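User: I'm putting together a teaching handout on how multi-component assemblies are represented. Below are the sequence lines for each component of a complex, exactly as they appear in our records. Could you produce the 3D structure of the whole assembly as structure tokens, so the students can see both representations side by side? Please keep the chain order the same as the input.
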Amino acid sequence: MAAHPESVTLPRRDEHARAQLAAVGAARAPLVLARDRTLTVPGPLGAVIPTLTRGTVVAVGGRLGAGATSTALGLAAAATAAGEWAALVDGSGSLGALAAAEGGVDLARFVVVRDVPRERWATVVAALLDGVSVVIAEMPRGVRPADARRLLARARERSAVLVALAADVRAWPVEAGMRIVAAGGVWSGLGEGDGTLAARVGHWTVSDRGHAPRVVGRRVG
Amino acid sequence: MSAPTRTLCLWCPDWPVVAARITEAAPAAGPVVVLTRQRVLAASADARAEGVRIGQRWREAEAACPGVVVLDADPAGEVRAFEPLVRAVEVVTPRVVIDRPGLLAFPTRGPSRYHGGDGGLIEHLRTTIQATGPVDLRLGIADGEFAARLAARRGVVIPAAETPAFLAPWPIAAVGDDDLADLLARLGVRTLGAFAALPAASVLARFGRMGLTAHRLARGEDAHPRALTTPPPDFEERVEFDPPAERVDEAAFAAKGLADRLLDRLAARGLACTQVIVEAETEHGDTLARAWRHEGALTPGALAERVRWQLDGWLQTTGGLSGGLTVVRLRPEQVIPATGRQLGFWGGDAAAADRAERVFARLQGLLGPEQVVTAVPQGGRMPIERVRWVAWGEPREPAPGAPVGPTAGPVAVEVPPWPGAIPGPAPARVFVTPVPAELIDAQGRSVVVTARGDHHGVPARLRCPVVPGGEGAVTAWAGPWAQDVRWWDRAGRVRRVAWQVVIDGDLACLVEMARGVATVVAVYD
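Assistant: Of course. Below is the structure of the complete assembly, with chains in the same order as your input.
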């Protein structure tokens, strides 16, 4: 009778076991597929910006009312739709959370950080990048290039996406993977004393690295 | 196998109602119901006589008993009101274990002998507690906590070794697990006695671990074998306050971290906690300790909640603490093997959630708990009323009294259609402090709305800082929509009108006018 093969002793600690499993997984699939490096943007905004690349900074700008906030929220929806987390650093304290929900964000996985003192802004954003896939950061006036570069490095290291939101897209002082300027658009549904606000045809100017800026129009809302 | 500990159980029926009367949140007489999540949690005897049932919806309860006083559950207040009773019991024995406000238990071995038997102990306890104030008390003694609780419902003392006979005629629903009880009843097992008669091995095979626990209870044993429940030593978590904490929220925030750390450490050993001792030291060196028990295992949220209630009880009741808190300690007293945690394959989802939660907790430490929030939709007319911001870690529930749909789950809260809500897409910018504005008609006069909601003048221009250049032409508009909010409440009543306006073709705003003053309350960004 053949001897029973001696059973392999498995490591007892959870972290150990997980590290081993990850190593086996990496050995089985050594390639990093492009789709693992991106987040798919759901909803109507997906037709304008189909994917977000992890580890990059997206600068979003546009004057109040032009749709910059909805655009940023649409990008956050990319994270929650994938079962991951999103956060927003709310400088003005005026985020309409229902608009986030309508933009496809799962509110249970969307955290808002408010009343961040000016001198702690970079610390807070860096901390969020540690644990959250998409961080929307409303930029205070005059973010220093050194801070911005540090945040860029942190996003790259953690494979998170930083969405830098400001009225002026050039407020983000260093390079960005993508710059999106919301340019507004015509609202429909409202008449002269009748109807209700229904939808708008939005326009965006999108500049990727390595591409000429392009203007995209799309009905949203 | 050791016999279960002989236990005395003290039960105050309808404690939420009694507590509300003690704290004077409810009138001393007349029907009262206490709600949690829009359903009846407890009702006074006269309300029950009118047909109010536990678990009923608010509207049904009001229909059954018109004029009933409806209150929202206040667990912290219940603990506060319960505190004097617990202190009275602590004179008799130090080993008091609180299950929930209104229900506690302790082993009777020492006290019973001291007071000359179970009957003497009950007499003594009753007079001691009644001295603190008149309360409807039920006391029962039996072998094991489960049987003692049932004995307390009847107010009887079950002689030693007769516990299985006492349990046998109880309906199967007494095990407390509704799904299991329902299934067993349909299989024809209708009493605890019939369930106890089944062989334990078959019960485990057919109903799993939950079934086995219930079977042990039905047989009159402890829910978990004693040998498994003693925690390993040195599982103690503590937090020190310097300067001493005097406010509940400071202590509560620390309690949350404490609970997380303790349960994390236990989980690393494959353990879950069912009974924990909360200890506090004051700046004058006093030490207070209280044991809390939980059916099943304590989750971090449930544990933090109990610690908060207890600290609140100590800090708010007179004679509780001699000064601010300097140290809070958590010590597990009873643990069971953890069974229910599954990590995602490759450490996926759960690990990401853990990481996110750690980051949020860190930011709460940096900025304050109230600055890290999540949004919960709720019913309301204006955009600002339709969202409640909840500090991270608090239960994601709409504000007390705000209506929610029947499917109020932990994640998605369904809000039913709300008559009078502003239609259309939700604005992405909602100003907490509305921006002053002026709506002007073609002749340059302000648009005026009468108390009846009629308006004079057609909006032609909007003057407001949110508009580029400070002023713009109204190209499309709808309204005014009149809202008479809380008209039944003299103090809280607001009459206002709202317009949706589009300025220069592409800036859409929501304009509100109340008491003749116009403001921009939201921008569709």
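A couple of points students might notice: Chain A has a mean pLDDT of 84. Chain A touches chain B through 66 residues (CB under 8 Å).
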